[in-house]
Each structure stands twice: as structure tokens, then as C-alpha cells.
User: Fold this.
Amino acid sequence: MPKVSVITVCRNAEADIAATIASVQAQDYPDIEHVFVDGASTDRTLEIIRASRPARVVSEPDAGIYHAMQKGIGLSTGEVLYFLNSGDVLADDRVVSDAVQFFDLTGADAVFGNLLPVANAHFSHPMYRPGRVIDQGYFANRQMFFDQCIHHQTVFYRRAIFTRCGYICDEAAANGEYFLHMCAFVREGFSARHLPRLIARFALGGYSTSDFEIEWRRFEAARDILRRRFFQTKPLMMSKSEYLHAPPSFMNRLKMLSRDPRMRWLFLAVQQLRYGARRYSL
Assistant:
């Protein structure tokens, strides 16, 4: 059974770090190490972490959240890595066991599932609705990285991915999981499989959801850099090798098309045929 490293980065997180720790300690999987990268907290965060008897903890100034996550890779020793930031919690006590079993069943290099946003604080991000599960089963092929990214709170990675890829880009505006995923799944061809279950509850109001205007500008800058680096063109049709897992269902294909305003009518027309006069919304 492979060792699983759960990596948590934090700074001044005394209000919510205990919940994150408890969700990891509740897992029924027998071989988990919890690694903490603390950005020199000045509150009780370190005291709470050390009381949990972590596998490893380092507390020092860093260059930001993605540099801290990259540092956590070097501190970890597991064959499978998962990043659970402070305030986020695993969905239930079988998440890690189910993910490891899914690795065995599929032979994938990465396993990703679904996410439940939770409003623990003020947030500003219209893409997230508290209490509404984000089902990432539609994310079925590599070409979708042209426009969007898989939420890192749902992804378990084999260590081999980090021998070729990481969070830090030589163009700093592209640092983050979008760069990691482009490198791993688009350039290097690592495989990912969708596990149809809830992985984590994501606390809104943190680094990426506290100010939508700032976050959207940051996302656009990263996306434009990554498109230039990893995509020559965006083909309309995809070859078999470009699928991350099984081709999407007919309805998921329509959902993907409906993201283009010019094609939304087709999706709504099919819904009208399926459900009659009932109103349907994405």
C-alpha cells in the first residue's frame, strides 16, 4: 500500500487549521504522513500543528503559496501526494482509501474527483456557489486545459509527476496548479482519471476567492502565458490520445458546447425535448 503525503500550507491559520488536521486524522487509510509548510505564523498556528504530532513541519518566510506548496513536495516522502490547504477538509473518512484504490483500478498517474465549496468567510467569486457540488466528470480531455483547470483540492498525484513538473514557472505570473497541470497532462502526457465522488470541502474566502476582480486578472494572465507555451492551436476535434479518460457522455458534450454562447441554444433545445416545459439551467 503506497504511502500518501498530505501537504498543508498555511500562515496565521489558528481559526481553521484544527479542522483540516482532524479531517486527515479521521482517514481510515493506514499510511498517511501529514506535512506542514507554515509561512512564519505569528499566532497559535504552529502550536496547534505541533500538538497533532505531524510527520514534518517547517515554519519560515516564503515567496508565496505556490512556493510553499513546491517546498512541501521536497519535504514529503509518499508515493502519492495530495495538497489540502488550511481551512479545507476531506469530505469523509474514506477519501484517501478510495483514491488509492482507484489508482490501482485504473493505473492512472493522477486521480481527481469533485469539490464542495463552503462559505466559511466573506468571499467574492461568482463561479462558486456554497453548498453546490462542482462535478468535474465533464473534464474529459486535455484540450479543455486551453480554457480552464482542474481544482487542485480534488487531485491526488503520483510522485513521478513532480520529477518533471511543479508549481513554479519561469514566468512568475503563471505559477500555480494551472502550470502544473498543463505541464503534466498536456506536455508530458501523464494520465488522469475522474473518481466520481466528493473529495474535499473547499473553504471560500481564501487566497483565490476573496476578490474576484483580482483573481480573474491573475487567471487571465496565467492562462494567456500557458496557452502560448503549451498550445500551438486549439483543434476542434480531439484524437483518442488526447482524452484524459473515457470520452464524455452525450449530455456532457452538450454541456461543454453550451459554454460557448453561440451553442447554448442547442443544449437548451435538447433539455426542452428531455424535460418538456420544465426550466433547466446550467
Q: What stands out?
A: The longest helix spans residues 212-230.
